[in-house]
Amino acid sequence: MTSHERPIGVAVLGLGNVGSQVVRIIQDSADDLAARIGAPLVLRGVGVRRVADDRGVPVDMLTDNIEELVSRDDVDIVVELMGPVEPARKAILSALEQRKSVVTANKALMAVSTGELAQAAEHAHVDLYFEASVAGAIPVIRPLTQSLAGDTVLRVAGIVNGTTNYILSEMDSTGADYESALADASALGYAEADPTADVEGYDAAAKAAILASIAFHTRVTADDVYREGITKVTPADFASARALGCTIKLLAICERLTSDEGQQRISARVYPALVPLDHPLATVNGAFNAVFVEAEAAGQLMFYGQGAGGAPTASAVMGDVVMAARNRVQGGRGPRESRYAKLPISPIGFIPTRYYVNMNVTDQPGVLSAVAAEFAKREVSIAVVRQEEMVDDDGQRCGARIVVVTHQATDAALSETVAALADLDVVQRINSVLRMEGATNE
Amino acid sequence: MTSHERPIGVAVLGLGNVGSQVVRIIQDSADDLAARIGAPLVLRGVGVRRVADDRGVPVDMLTDNIEELVSRDDVDIVVELMGPVEPARKAILSALEQRKSVVTANKALMAVSTGELAQAAEHAHVDLYFEASVAGAIPVIRPLTQSLAGDTVLRVAGIVNGTTNYILSEMDSTGADYESALADASALGYAEADPTADVEGYDAAAKAAILASIAFHTRVTADDVYREGITKVTPADFASARALGCTIKLLAICERLTSDEGQQRISARVYPALVPLDHPLATVNGAFNAVFVEAEAAGQLMFYGQGAGGAPTASAVMGDVVMAARNRVQGGRGPRESRYAKLPISPIGFIPTRYYVNMNVTDQPGVLSAVAAEFAKREVSIAVVRQEEMVDDDGQRCGARIVVVTHQATDAALSETVAALADLDVVQRINSVLRMEGATNE
């Protein structure tokens, strides 16, 4: 059967780690791919910035004329692996306008430009797949859009950035501070020369936007995502977390909130949070990723695997390529953008959450009472409080450290409380403020 | 748009735990489902053995005439939740012949009759979905058939039976023996009155057949799966496992084996195995399920969640229903059966595996040497050996216990070794033999 079918032509844009692996799989697994698709999958060309004979691909397959490559009549599927937002956006739009199906791993683009691209795909009646844009090899987009299509997703909490997870795991297991853990991550190739996108949570926020869009059938962009990075997390926070039976993870959280009147809103946010050690996300260490999903009927699900790297990301890209190719052969299309729900996105202040506050206070009677009063004034209930004496280098008492973990309150009430604490004379310093996620006692 | 589309009619066969939840979701989530499908999803009727007014569904929706229900012109999708193999098989075939798309959770049927049903679906050009047949709410079928469609699956190892996982978790955490852990499971509703299908591994074997078929593009039925149950696992095995840094899990294993000459074979097997505590499957406890996948490019993936129960299984069923309904509205079909690879299935004897052997021996010089000689004769290399003295009720030495863990060898060589050990005069008793899976040092 296979040999009689018209081949499906593929253009790959970008020949970095992922692009090279995609090209390799198309060539090495040609027979298997043809059998799975029902027609041969043929590489038509690779778009690169620099055409040269040392790229690991025959030089006559390379071109720096992206526009010409995506316009070829024998190209059915365009695989965009160039990043960043531009020139990827322009190339994808051009491909879609010419009725090519598109597969991309570009989370930054998908998180800002999803509406425009989805409309172009819709208009052209072609597929736009982006499984590899979130959590590398881990199937997340497809389970959310298809497997859970008959369920109501309540919450998605993901460890979706390998760099920060490596740094936090390292801080947890070795007691290292942030700077030296970052240096280790850089030395091992887990962090880029400029780590800002990872450590400040921009990468995770882009993925949170994509996940929230899909989970809640609402268009969410990166700008809608509340974001804090991991640069202020200290070894003392890990010590306190440990004492509370927790570790610290950078989480991308997408949540459906239902008011007492039944009004629904959603939240998408990224920040380092205390996670109880018995939560499935707590044991996801190093460069691994995991996405934890709670749905009304399904209950708790978790998807775990390698979130980055050439081969794992190429696996996700190739899954999309095979599905897009099958649709070309058999007719039909994959699921299109679903944004019918149009749920309002809640500002962080309205989100019910729990705070961990670590502060230095003067060592005198009435301090704990003054601190507790600030919580009580804003109706924030305290779950755990720990106070310990501090001594200076000469062994003299020089104050105390208080750690407070709250029950759930609105983020606004909690952050107001922290601001008020900072203004108290008896509080010398707020050492850190983190949120707590995933605890059952809320 | 939605309101102009012809409704998609659904017939549900079976009104047990899962069927009731499916009916509830179709009714409670009607607006969301219509928006996601692009047309209203309408329940046409429910097939039951006993029509009565106490079934939680209006009595005029019920019928005991399955044949008539699936033949109705206004039924587009038949959801089969009756089990067991018959009468489900007949109902599904009848539905497919009448060009209805079919969604089923029936693993026993899918594991014996997949070819026949797949052909009927192919002939009628309709969807046959069965996500709920393996691991309840956990998306496994769709990730394997779609997300990994461009990759090469090397291995699937799953905890796919909640009853046995509950029993083994209980034995591990409380030291209970098999009988009392089974009694607990029964009392909590985790085990059926006749637990044979679960504890003897038949349920897991059916799921292994389905997973192997999909992962390796080869038709595998339950009869092709090597199977051992958990009834002989003892508290002493758990104690030994602990000492070796392991726990014991009933695993469904599907593996691709490549000979030195590049010949490929596959294996599908179910047995209780020692699993290292640092393996992701080791921490999957209680009634939870998890499926661990290794693929060439993706590396290690794990899918975790609730493997049974009315609502979780209904979530998986409804995901399939929405996809089948979307295909009805938009045209197109989901992936069909893929069995092009037709890989030979290896008998258990040829499988490379590792054994754990626990035996009682007489306490005299030369015993360990005699035992070790039987392994050496068959070129089985020993990884760990532990010998400890046994004392009787009066505190007198009465022999010794030897625990051996081997490196990898063929299952045939290992089982021959165990048979030879049993014949040795110095071996009083082989207490137990288990395999070890998931250790890195093989």
TrEMBL record, chains A, B:
It is an enzyme of class 1 (oxidoreductase). L-homoserine binds at residue 192. Its cofactor is a metal cation. Keywords: Amino-acid biosynthesis, Metal-binding, Methionine biosynthesis, NAD, NADP, Oxidoreductase, Sodium, Threonine biosynthesis. GO terms for biological process: methionine biosynthetic process; threonine biosynthetic process. Gene3D superfamilies: 3.30.70.260, Dihydrodipicolinate Reductase, domain 2, NAD(P)-binding Rossmann-like Domain. It comes from the Bacteria. NADPH binds at residue 107. Residues 356-435 form the ACT domain. Catalyzes the conversion of L-aspartate-beta-semialdehyde (L-Asa) to L-homoserine (L-Hse), the third step in the biosynthesis of threonine and methionine from aspartate. This is Homoserine dehydrogenase.
